[in-house]
Amino acid sequence: MSDCLFCKMVAGDIQPDILYSDEHVLAIRDINPQAPFHALVIPREHIATLNDLGPQHADTIGRMVLAARQLAQAHGFAADGYRTVINCNRLAGQTVYHLHLHVLAGRAMHWPPG
Ligand code: 5GP
Ligand code: ZN
């Protein structure tokens, strides 16, 4: 997807602050952090929203969650806690239409979320 921001990051055309990378996913620091630690785990494959996820993506979504766990552990948040979020479509506030998993940590999280 040539007009997709996260595809451009995956392709290396835009260089974000990369926290983790493997053949399945890229993890970057969010440009507008909502917590002291805020990362986005992005699949290398373009999948627009959670609604577009199919059984063929089971490994990909698993790798995304594993990368989130790895990030939390590596940055020292595993024991105290952290939050993972996928916003899907308009009412959830999705703004970038390439699937991504938010990893937020470093402060107490509220529930219910806003
Ligand atoms: P969404 O609202 O779609 O769930 O999340 C999109 C996220 O991407 C937002 O938290 C936003 O701050 C982040 N974002 C948007 N543009 C950029 C960018 O150019 N670089 C980085 N690192 N993050 C971005
Ligand atoms: Zn994309």
- The CATH top-level class label: Alpha Beta
Number of helices: 2
Major sheet: order of its strands? Answer: 1-2-3-5-4
Number of domains: 1
Summarize the model shown.
By secondary structure, the protein is of the alpha+beta class. It has one domain (5-105): HIT family, subunit A (2-Layer Sandwich), CATH 3.30.428. 21% of the residues lie in helices and 22% in strands.
3D structure, described in words:
With 114 residues, the protein is an alpha+beta fold. The chain has a single domain (5-105), classed as 2-Layer Sandwich (HIT family, subunit A). It is 21% helix and 22% strand. Strands 1-2-3-5-4 form a five-stranded antiparallel β-sheet, with helices on one face. The mean pLDDT is 97. Residues 1, 4, 6-7, 46, 98 line the site of zinc ion.
Summary keywords:
alpha+beta; binds zinc ion; 114 residues; 5-stranded antiparallel sheet; 2 helices
List the helices and strands and how they pair.
Blueprint: H1 5-11, E1 18-21, E2 25-29, E3 37-43, H2 58-74, E4 82-85, E5 101-105
Antiparallel strand pairs: 1-2, 2-3, 3-5, 4-5
The structure holds guanosine-5'-monophosphate (5GP) and zinc ion (ZN).
